TrEMBL record:
It is found in: Late endosome membrane. It is a peripheral membrane protein. It comes from Magallana gigas. This is Pep3/Vps18 RING C-terminal domain-containing protein. Keywords: Coiled coil, Metal-binding, Zinc, Zinc-finger. Residues 200-298 form the Pep3/Vps18 RING C-terminal domain. CHCR repeats lie at residues 1-123.
Length: 319
């Protein structure tokens, strides 16, 4: 009356009712548990108390149900195998679909039980249809040595056909990958042979000063930047670690340039190689893509034009 009519949610009341069902009316115990549902947050009784109570009175099916609610699927399957294989199969399918490893492990336990305890080879082979995760090679180790191949001939044929199909798919993927690699090689070769003209009137896209006044970068999209202008544009968009690395490389490039000027006429292949490596790393960091056409521009689309601190200052200048 308290629970059904008054809709009482008090845990003590539900625990007491559960104890009465377990002791006096075990045939209604599962009905009560099913009515309570499977959502642990809405269940009114204490799961641990219910598990201990049902275990004391030997209600294995109820224990399986509670184990499942607690997420203890391995214990639920092990206990369900003492009751009914079909019940164990239901528990094996309860873990999340993403947790394939656990589901496969549970199904293998059931298959092993059927083969070793019930000696039912035919029924074990049916598990290959019940669970898509199981393969014939997964359950073969459970069979005794005297089992003839006739028991699982069809399963072996099906498995071989699946492997052949998988091999064909892999071949197609390899062919596609080979074609893609060939296309990439052709594109790389075309970029190596690509060139562009720079005239004396060209200007830096950032500062609008003559481009050839100092060192510059020219991108395939034909945007052109002075080296220092490009670095100045890229730096604010780099991580602090990369920003520090760029500044460090700039210092090294400047030092290498100074040492090269001071040692004119002196052979120094090793220092030249180091200078090239430093310059190449700097290029990778700041000139891997055009700042106007690359991903950098796309990533900055949601950035405001003005910083929060500068907004009031700009507004006051307009008034």
């Amino acid at each position: 009356f308290c629970i059904e009519q008054l809709d009482n949610k008090d845990q003590a009341i539900h625990n007491y009712l559960l104890s009465l069902y377990a002791k006096l009316k075990p045939d209604q115990l599962m009905t009560y548990l099913n009515i309570q549902g499977t959502d642990e947050d809405t269940i009114c009784y204490d799961l641990k108390y219910a598990l201990r109570l049902c275990a004391e009175h030997g209600h294995k099916k109820a224990c399986v149900h509670i184990y499942s609610l607690m997420g203890l699927y391995e214990e639920a399957v092990d206990l369900a195998l003492q009751v009914d294989v079909e019940l164990a199969k239901q528990q094996a399918d309860k873990p999340d679909e993403d947790d394939n490893d656990l589901r496969k492990k549970l199904w293998l336990r059931i298959a092993r039980h059927v083969v070793e305890e019930e000696k039912d080879v035919k029924r074990a082979m049916e598990f290959l249809h019940d669970c898509e995760l199981l393969k014939i090679e997964d359950i073969l180790p459970f069979f005794p040595d005297f089992v003839t191949i006739d028991h699982f001939k069809d399963a072996i044929v099906t498995s071989l056909q699946e492997y052949n199909h998988h091999i064909e798919q892999l071949k197609e993927e390899m062919d596609d990958a080979t074609k893609s690699a060939e296309e990439i090689r052709k594109e790389i070769q075309s970029f190596r042979n690509k060139y562009a003209f720079v005239s004396a009137t060209d200007k830096c896209a950032a500062c609008n000063f003559p481009l050839m006044a100092r060192s510059f970068y020219l991108f395939p999209c034909h945007h052109k930047f002075h080296s220092d202008c490009l670095i100045g544009e890229v730096l604010p968009n780099l991580t602090s670690k990369k920003r520090q690395r760029v500044e460090e490389l700039q210092r090294k490039v400047a030092e290498n340039e100074d040492s090269r000027v001071s040692s004119v006429g002196v052979r120094g292949d090793n220092s030249t190689d180091k200078s090239k490596d430093t310059k190449a790393e700097l290029d990778d960091l700041v000139a891997s893509e055009c700042i106007y056409c690359g991903d950098l521009m796309v990533r900055s689309i949601d950035q405001p034009f003005l910083d929060e601190g500068d907004e009031d200052l700009v507004l006051s200048g307009w008034l």
